[in-house]
Design brief:
single chain; mainly alpha; 94% helix
Length: 68
């Protein structure tokens, strides 16, 4: 292989390693957020239900206005 092809291959490998590491970090952060959200719902189930209902209502209003 030529030097430029080898250099390009190394760059792709470095990018893939960095992307894989970042994906692992994001997966870990999402897992932490999921655990916190579940704990919050278990601690305050009525507040969580009300927040979900309000969010659904507001989303439906936004969608219906976008259709007009």
């Amino acid at each position: 292989m030529s030097e430029s092809t080898t250099s390009l291959g190394n760059g792709v490998e470095e990018f893939a390693e960095a992307a894989s590491a970042r994906i692992g970090e994001i997966r870990s952060e999402l897992g932490d957020a999921d655990r916190r959200a579940r704990a919050l719902v278990q601690e305050y189930p009525l507040v969580a239900l009300a927040a979900a209902a309000l969010g659904g209502y507001l989303l439906a209003r936004l969608i219906s206005r976008a259709r007009e």
